[in-house]
Write a structure and sequence with these properties.
This protein starts with a strand and ends in a 15-residue tail after the last helix. It has a single domain (4-252), classed as TIM Barrel. By secondary structure, the protein is of the alpha/beta class. It contains ten helices and eight strands.
Length: 267
């Protein structure tokens, strides 16, 4: 598992239907800029606006393309466990190298219900797995005690993406080679230097792939970076709505990524 990846937007047509062919220029652009790991169908990919059938179509598209020399991660999150199982089963024989499992949104499961959800999904895959805790979007916050129970019982959980309080995990001993991903680029320097993260799930890397990757690598080597310069780049992408800004950037490059699904981007 690589410790740096970029979360891709999902291309749409003007009528908000999937534009699967729009993935290829994005993938090629990022590969040409030195990126070797991509995250498909996450928050940046407007995951929760996608039906299960649309997500299955995306999996099929990547199966047909067989992009070379790049690690592929697919995001799985669903309100219903059975929908998550459908996605996991489709991914098992796919070109995707690993799965990022997010917790059910909106319904606010108990800790035990969330654990049962993950347990069930993991019975249907042999892929490497990253768990994704995103309390501000899902309304659920995984307790560190339950996180470590899951890691202990499931040896294919090799990473954890934390969009909540990263500092609560800083002094915890994780398995060797375990990757703790910072969720996004805001506070990048402090998340690596002070928060104990050794991985990054980047959104701003869509616009500044070389710069964000180089900064991340430099921080992991305990070398200094130009904090003001990198903060300005990140702010340029994350001001307002990050997904809207990313799509506007790709559209300016002529990639035809389309707009976000309404009401995102609507003014």
């Amino acid at each position: 598992m690589k410790n740096f990846h970029i979360a891709l937007p999902t291309p749409f047509r003007e009528d908000e239907s999937l534009y699967l062919e729009g993935f290829e220029p994005i993938v090629n652009y990022l590969k040409e800029n030195g990126i070797d790991s991509l995250f498909v169908s996450g928050s940046t990919g407007e995951q929760h606006s996608l039906s299960i059938e649309e997500r299955l179509h995306i999996i099929d598209y990547f199966n047909q393309k067989h992009f070379q020399d790049i690690e592929l991660i697919f995001g799985v999150a669903s309100t219903r466990t059975r929908d998550g199982v459908r996605l996991i089963e489709a991914l098992e024989g796919s070109v995707f190298d690993m799965v990022m499992i997010g917790f059910p949104p909106y319904i606010k499961p108990t800790q035990q219900q969330a654990i049962l959800y993950v347990d069930e999904l993991l019975t249907h895959t042999t892929k490497d797995v990253i768990l994704y805790n995103n309390p501000s979007r899902t309304g659920f916050d995984l307790n560190p005690e339950f996180l470590h129970d899951l890691i202990r019982r499931h040896k294919n959980i090799l990473g954890f993406k934390e969009a909540g309080d990263i500092h609560r995990h800083r002094d915890t001993v994780f398995p060797e080679s375990f990757v703790r991903f910072a969720a996004g680029d805001v506070n990048l320097v402090s998340n690596i230097v002070l928060g104990g993260c050794n991985g990054l799930s980047s959104m701003a890397g869509n616009v500044f792939p070389k710069e964000i990757k180089q900064t991340f690598d430099t921080l992991l080597e305990n070398r200094t970076v130009n904090v003001e310069e990198i903060s300005q780049m990140i702010a340029q992408v994350t001001h307002g709505q990050t997904i809207v800004n990313i799509k506007e950037y790709y559209n300016q490059l002529g990639m035809g990524t389309g707009s976000c699904r309404s009401p995102l981007g609507a003014e």
